[in-house]
Amino acid sequence: MNRRWIIPLIVGLALVITGIWGIDQYRQKRAYQIYMQNQYQRMFYDLLGHVENIQVDLSKVLVSGSPEHNNNLFSNISRQSFSAQEKLNQLPISHVALNKTSKFLAQVADYSSSMTKKNTPLNSDQMETVAGLHNSAAKLTEELRGLFDMITDGTIKMGELRREGGFQLARAPERNLDGEFSKIHEKMADYPTLIYDGPFSDHLLEPKPRELKGESITFDRAKEIAKRFIGPEDIREIRRGSDSSGFIKTYGLEIIPEGNRRSPIYVSITKTGGHVAWMLNTRGIGESKLSMEEMRQKAEAFLKEKGYVNMMPTYSMVSGDTGVVNFAYTQDGVIIYPDLLKVKVALDNGEVVGFEAQKFLMSHHDRDIRKPRLTEEEARRFISNQFNVSKGRLALIPLEDRTEVLTYEFKSRYQEDEFLIYINADTGDQEMILKIIKDKTGTLTM
Amino acid sequence: MLIIFCIFSAIAALYIHDKGVKAQTLYWGSRGDDVYELQRKLKQWGYYTGPVDGYFGAKTHKAVVYFQRKNGLRVDGLVGRETRRALGMAVATNYAASRGISNRDDLYLLAQLITGEARGEPYLGQVAVGAVVLNRVEHPSFPKTIAGVIFQPGAFTAVSDGQMFRPPTSTAIRAAADALNGWDPTWGALYYYNPARTTNRWIWSRPVHLVIGKHRFAR
After folding, report:
1. Could you please report the per-residue DSSP string of A223-282?
2. Where do the Sporulation protein YpeB PepSY1 and PepSY2 domain residues begin and end (chain A) (predicted)?
3. pLDDT in tens, A222-253
4. I need a labelling partner for B58 at 20 to 30 A (CA). Which of A162, A294, A356, B20 fits?
């Protein structure tokens, strides 16, 4: 055979194959693009539908006089806004452009769900809030409708994914979804400030710590405090780590133990009062030898040694080669759940390798605890007789709005499941039910 | 939900409503909320004339029998499944004891994100990245779940470029566990950025809480 044809033949064949492959790739890419576009379109359409319903229902609240009817409307609104927020956050829009809209929807959801618990007609303040929310919802509906028109007539394409990830946002927003949402964002800026008792009310978004006791301390003083807290460990070096200026101002320290240069112990100490906010020892941990009980004792001994008094171990959980023991403060025999300390114990030798007092520092103070109106026996009667109720004790628990309520905590059983039921110690209302879960990886015990 | 999760975080907390566990057969002598409801319903429809007192007595029994006869149910004077359903009351669900859910899936996902976003950063920086995710879950401007926050389009580079879809490092798993257990070196930061990489002016304007390694953490 004539050899001259072989090479062109191979090259030709390769070209054809590459071509076919290329067309196939292109088709696939198109298919994915169309699929994405359809997903986003659907989400946007849903979003618009939800926001329209929110607006309509809010307007109905304004004209309805019956609390029961309002309850229904509010529960509808909260469901709709929750879904709307979910859809919104899945659209390919930068956070900066949508964070106010997202916050608006989350707050409407939360406000409405807090209103469903009220059985009285709206007072004038609440009316005003609802009216304000309604106006914002109406504005938002209008904007979204305009956007929807642009999407349907092809002015805006949603399939065109932004290339940059992270916080690298589009520089000059043109006619893209991001830019359009930025415009909405500016208009959402003036919706009413929400003061109500839900978890997302404006006045709760920046938690304020209780007054920290003590004077301002220097870094050198912080070093001494850290050294004493770590204990007799051979310290090679103490370095200045990252200071933090969040809700509480702290010094950050990095302690390098002798001979173990690569795993520092991090300690964070408050600039006011010199309290240890948290500690993390990052050393490697050997084979687990400690039992749950030994772990708890080690943690308890540690707290006692560091001068934390009236702390009661509530729950402990083992995960991997460490365990965490939770302690709640007790005052006059009442468990104060908001004041929580955590101690992390290495299961190889029982050394404490972690300590967390951030929530404790934020919330701890001397409380004025009144005598409850109900006795334990009276409170127990408010629990469904389906439960096998074994234990009761007084506990102060935090609610969603970060207020605290005095309750009786009952450990209860329903068939094989265990629950903690919290009954308001004054009114008998059921404030909360928690299920106790014991799973394979972390055994949760009391 | 998440606020409480933080406070009781060692107990993987799960709300349940007690509605489902309440439904049971009512008969002569029963008392309680269910009987109140039964009497209210019967009264509303004119089967019952006695007091709504939460006690299943002779009059209630008579009303139930009357209701059953009228509606083609088995006439036994017991308020069981069928009668409950006909009355529009909660029907007992077959309650299966559950071994519960755990936060293991969240732990793994969070560890994957930390691996993708902060591999090579100091341990503390890894815990801080985990804490930012959890702080976002608690803030209304962001989705309400860990997965929602992580997969929010454009939120994290490691998600956009697929870097996070690898098994997490053991350090990252540790860091994720510490973050889930409540350690937050950032005291409530919602954002972080690498000042050498980002040109976004908005993010630069946020108040910085602290700096760890290459990352600035801001609210």
Report:
1. HHHHHHHH-S--EEEEEE---EESSSEEEEEEEEETT-TTS-EEEEEETBTT-EEEEEE-
2. 178-369
3. 988 998 898 867 788 888 888 888 888 999 99
4. B20
